[in-house]
Amino acid sequence: MPLPLLCCPDGEALAPGQGGFLRATRIPGLHYIGTRPQSRLRRLLWGLAFLASAGLLATGATDRLHHLLSHPVHTRARLARVPQLRFPAVTLCNPNRARFLQLTKPDLYSVGQWLGLSREDRSLVPELLAVLEDEQRRWLTRLANYSRFLPPRRSERTMQSFFHRLSHQIEDMLVECRFQGERCGPQHFNPVYTRYGKCYTFNGDRRNPRVTRQGGMGNGLEIMLDIQQEEYLPIWRETNETSFEAGIRVQIHSQDEPPYIHQLGFGVSPGFQTFVSCQEQRLTYLPQPWGNCRASVQGEQTLPGYDTYSIAACRLQCEKEAVVRSCHCRMVHMPGNESICSPNVYIECADHTLVEDSQERCSCPTPCNLTRYGKEISMVRIPNKGSARYLARKYNKNETYIRENFLVLDIFFEALNYEAIEQKKAYDLAGLLGDIGGQMGLFIGASILTILEILDYIYELGSGGSSWGSPPLAAPSSWRGIVALGPALSLPPAPSSSPSACPVSAHRVGGRPASQQQKWPHNLAACRSRLAGGKDRHTRGDWGGRGPPQGSACKG
């Protein structure tokens, strides 16, 4: 790139002139603002256009920055096929907490008031006797006669032993059981305590869960149950624990979470065959600041009594803390090593605490990784007229009993696939840089290199050594006429009386007069030729140590 023409009178400039940053920058608007030949109106219009574009850029960049700081998310769902699926845990509960006809005198003495059968003085409730049949009334009256009865010690009649003995037993309720066409039995159901008392879970072992390799009806769990309605407690009033339903409560859940069946279960009615088509859903949420899920840390003790964190486990732990705080004991279905509340404490404290206190104080965030099961439920009536007599004869029951107490539950996967629902970051730093870069190019035609150029100029200004608009260097008094066109030429100093070899006006190239600008291409070529020839002649001594002769083509 040719160096600018420098002029020679004493004290004139040798360095670039006052073009400055505006003329040298690559930003289009600033370039036109800094060009001197432009009219003032034109430069003003370019300035206004640049300011408007810069304002739009600042507005757009601020909006994108606020969008990034709001931590937006989006949800993506997809279906994935697999050769096999882990079958879920299935928890069954009979909503009747105690079998009425299995009560003994110690049971009635200890928990009669909690069951709503007797008063605080242990006398039978008259309203209850009014709804009982004659035989049941006589039996219960004899049971409530404590004239020669020695009350049991409290340690002998805890609530856990009461639920263990008087709840409906799986051996009595389970009529038929098949899993993937193979027979199963009561030994495959593990007892678990819930708000309903003693319940039973199939496939609850998280270390060795059952798997299914085929979808569709008949490839899951199929059971026939007898709900034993004749054993239900008589209802004569409504309380918080009163249940009017007949059937079973079912919850389908992961092996990693305990059942929370009183809120998350669904009902199955007697006299129907219920089909439950399931689909596994694997949910992934984002932690703070994008979401509110709870991230599990390996080796962390999540909740006492549980290996993994879940919403159900958190709620049970929170409820236990509320009951222990108010009643100084825990209920049977709650985890921990605290002593179990007595029946009187159940009545006076624990039940009220669960209803009034726990729901307000429990705050359980969703785990970041969660497995749940979507359900589609359908049902048909059983038995039909042709099978009612056969079932009655097979199980030694009458047809009315079969219709009022028997039910069939069929749980299966619709297909061997699962739905993955993932929460993703909708905007990140890369997106911010891309948006701002696009807006910079659109509004002001700039890039990252332009920003570096501006920073470099600011640094030069701050350090006092700016080369963008620095003052020109003074020419040595001994130099008269040198054209800087490339590498420096080793020319002898011209005599002071000799006319200048380059009598161009003492202005920089960018600011020379118009008359000389017109001559500039011709004179530049002539100067190059003369100087090249002069160098050779100087080498040969043709000029005798003098400068170029007068009348040279270097004249302006």
Automatic annotation (TrEMBL):
Pfam families given for it?
ASC
Give the Low complexity compositional bias ranges. Answer: 497-506
Disordered, as annotated region:
496-556
Instruction: Give the main localization category.
Output: membrane
> Which Gene3D superfamilies did the record assign?
Acid-sensing ion channel domain, Acid-sensing ion channels like domains
Query: Residue ranges under compositional bias (Basic and acidic residues)?
Result: 533-543
What the record says about family reads:
Belongs to the amiloride-sensitive sodium channel (TC 1.A.6) family.
Q: What is this protein called?
A: Acid sensing ion channel subunit family member 4
The lineage is: Eukaryota, Metazoa, Chordata, Craniata, Vertebrata
